[in-house]
Amino acid sequence: MKATSYLRGLAVLIALCCFSAAAQAEDGYELWLRYHPVEKQWLGQYRAAADVLVTAGTSPTAQVTREELVRGLSGLLDRKEPVGDSIRRDGAVLFGTPADSKTIAGLNLPLGQVGGEGYIIRSVVAKGHKVIVIAANSDVGVLYGAFRFLRQIQTRQPLDKLDIVSAPKVKYRLLDHWDNLDGTIERGYAGFSIFNWWELPEYVKPRYMDYARADASIGINGAVLNNVAANALILTPRYLKKVAALADAFRPYGIKVYLSARFSAPIEIGGLKTADPLDPAVRAWWKAKADEIYHYVPDFGGFLVKANSEGQPGPQDYGRTHADGANMLAEALKPHHGIVMWRAFVYSDKVPTDRIKQAYDEFVPLDGKFDDNVILQVKNGPLDFQPREPFSPLFGATPKTNMGLEVQPTKEYLGFETHLVYLGTMWQEVLQSDTYARGPGSTVAKVIDGSLFGNKNTLMAGVANVGTDRNWCGGTFDQANWYAFGRLAWNPDQSAEEIANDWVRMTLTTNPAAVTPIVAMMMGSREAAVNYMTPLGLAHQMGTGHHYGPGPWIDNVGRPDWNPVYYNKADKGGIGFDRTPTGSNAVAQYAPPLDKEFTDVNTTPQKFLLWFHHLPWTYEMKSGHTLWDGLVMHYTQGVNTVTDMQATWANLKPYIDPERFAQVTAFLEIQHRDAQLWRDASIAYFQSLNGLPLPAGYAAPEHTLDYYESLAFPYAPGNPGMTAAPFVNSAKATHMDMAPKATPTDAH
User: Fold this and answer.
1) Domain co-membership, 152 together with 79
2) Residues 469-498 pLDDT 10s
3) Are residues 49 and 190 in the same domain?
4) Counting CB atoms within 10 angstroms of each CB, which of 193, 373, 478, 482 has the fewest?
5) Among 399, 391, 453, 376, which residue's Cα sits nearest to residue 427?
6) pTM given for the model
7) Which residue, 380, 552, 579, is CA-closest to 461?
8) Do 478 and 535 fall into the same domain?
């Protein structure tokens, strides 16, 4: 027995040493949860304020909260495990709920303000001693508060006179994983899926808990485990056992699991001849399936559904509406308190006059017809996660329908993992856009947090950028987009710059000499990408299928609205999509003040100029430059900004660890190469149409248009199942060259 105990102890010691060595390696695995020792000037005051932990709860969530605080304070304050059982001196950190702690209950904290997931962190006097209390109405609220308390130390903020009261403004804060059962990820740029379905349920990887920790640290409370282009097998018992294993792993961290449901599952795995949502047998099948799922996962969150979009089956196949389909599933889930997230990314098999109008046209007439446990999940813009779009006009147009915002942390159209593009600014731009649905101040943020129309089921969803790469997201700065998503889902009114500042301090360095330039670089990065990719309101100019690199000349892919030329409408006379009353009249889908603003070319914001207007190349912009000269200048400015980012980063070498410094340096080199390609190829194509000279002092493209059209990228990542075809940007390619017929150019 003694020998066995010795060997076990030795194995544990070796494992701990290996973990410690791995934890010190700055490979990005720790994300923003780096609990490295603080500087000496902070150590004394932090130790004085957080000398000992006093725990109250005993639930699995309370246990992981204790473990997180022990891990955090032990690492940050460079000391042994700081745990006690009572308040005996100044400097205690007491955490728990009033139900678990008489001391917390006796403090009479205003916990009624924070609901079921919020928390209070306050400096108090308890039992005659100065104490920091982390309190909430639930164990998961205490967990969120613990992460917030540790962030205070990680970002080198004072611990005296704490009075933090925080509660999520959005009820459902979910990551949508476009992960396939074979381990590939649609639009994934960080390796394969972290969910290894082959090994589950027997082997639950420790990485699953690390993933859950990271989500919980930023307030994410749900994960959709599979691709929206769903495989019905996920709903079979074999896979539900695997789903249950993940649910068990995530539960202590306050994370529920959800599944993307294939609408035709009653046919494919149920043996029925129809999936008609009004057919009694189909409704009975879904009810039985819901009961079965909840048998395996008692706190299952619900379904995400992509229906009648890009060839996916749906209720319209049977002459039914989206409301008919969503309500059928909602009825099956309602006894279990589950929800249905019905995606509004739809467009008809028939080519419309303007594709961006279809979601509005289909869903506005259905306002008030969806059950109360249905949430309409709407992309930030009316097209498809482009570098810049105006907000979707659906926001504010359906006051009787629960409305959720869908954004895309994985950068499908923004340089994958190799371009430094911080999306916090993009999402802030959307969230703070005024819909005017109930007069000025009716922001998108107020629509999705329920405050504008009084909706109770609120949602912000993000398409995950997580994979098996050691640093989780492929690129170091892509971690910031995962982080920013969680922070904005918790509070859609938060500052993107404040979030970036916290992320840099928690992830890279707390040295002000480095923090300030890094944050500035992040804050300007998205505008740089817009400039070198799609300036002045252009959109969807990417290569086919893989969406890598420019392809503004592509005109022969399947149907017109899969082609970049459909969106730029460039010819000898001009460029841009007329969406005013003289064109598609998409402006009419916005509230009257915006309708008027977007219709008048003189009041349309320059950033949306070519989104709403077709203009001659010689149109004089507010800057005094012609439109053509302005386009060239914007393309060039995008490249120049990346050059500046490279110089900024090079000067930060003394402050950043070698491994991550080298990766970012290499990725910025890739980004500069790609930005130059975008600039030169786009200018070469548009100049071939208008025949105009470049403005003085601006360099001509390095190669001819034929060269850029001939470029092929057959193995660009993020497009599983399609890389065997020779994906190219060439106008000479056929649709069969680009992708299988069932998969259009802008999937998802």
Assistant:
1) yes
2) 999 999 999 999 999 999 999 999 999 999
3) no
4) 373
5) 391
6) 0.94
7) 380
8) no
